[in-house]
Amino acid sequence: MPPNQRPIKRILRWGIDHPGIISTNPRIDTTTYTLTVDGEVDRPVRLNWSEVLQLPHTVSVSDFHCVEGWSVLDCKWEGVRLKDLEKLVKPKATAQAATFECADSYTTSLFLSELADDDVLLAYKLNDEDLEEGLGAPLRLVVPSKYAYKSALWVVRVRFTRGKELGFWERRGYSDSADVWKNDRFRK
Fold first, then answer.
1. Angstrom distance (rounded) from CA 103 to CA 115
2. Beta strands of 70-118 (E only): which ranges?
3. What whole-number distance in Å separates Cα of residue 26 and Cα of residue 146?
4. Nearest 5°: CA angle at 28, between 25 and 31?
5. What are phi and psi of 110, to 5 degrees?
6. DSSP secondary-structure letter at 38?
7. pTM of the model
8. Does domain 6-18+37-182 have CATH number 3.90.420.10?
9. Which among 32, 75, 92, 139 is least surrounded, fewest beta carbons within 10 Å?
């Protein structure tokens, strides 16, 4: 268990069990959903929901850590590894990071090196169930080595960039590295 974390039974649902930063969660209809992947790439794409589900997928079990001090152990996620998405769009040599844009206007950014692990996914299932709205349905980022504010909910765009960009919480004083093992919660 990372420093200053305590285990709980399940991930708190945004706006339901856990106060959200918006008044209501976005309701995304998968019949009209589009995931845009662009920026510093050779082959930008716009994928509808059925095309997202046709991408190579994987199952990964990892722990989930909230900056508020709670952790859920052994979460079984299913989705698309970021490195498999990179194979599809072919980031240019100039791409060093990716910014994740969400249906609620939330953003966060990570270096491509932080997204290279096999357990980093754009997930659409948790514990064999489709994601709930309060857990980021239909598609959320999962980065187990980071605090959950780096695991963006309701992802609609992945934009490859020349450098890292400060996201919603990072602009408000949270650590940009969000390293759970270093207890790196707030900007110093």
1. 21
2. 70-81, 97-102, 107-111
3. 24
4. 170
5. -140, 150
6. E
7. 0.93
8. yes
9. 32
In single-letter form, the type of residue at position 7 comes to: P
| Residue 97 falls in which region: left (phi positive, over 0), alpha (psi -120 to 50) or beta | beta
Angle, CA 84 vertex, CA 50 and CA 10 arms, to 5°: 75
User: What tens digit of pLDDT does each residue of 79-110 get?
Assistant: 999 999 999 999 999 999 999 999 999 999 99
> In 10 A of CB 112, how many CB atoms?
17
Tens of pLDDT, residues 122-152 = 999 999 999 998 899 999 999 999 999 999 9
* Extents of the domains making up the chain: 6-18+37-182
Q: Could you give the 3-state DSSP secondary structure of residue 40?
A: coil
CA distances from 128 to 27, 142, 151, 170 (A): 21, 15, 19, 32
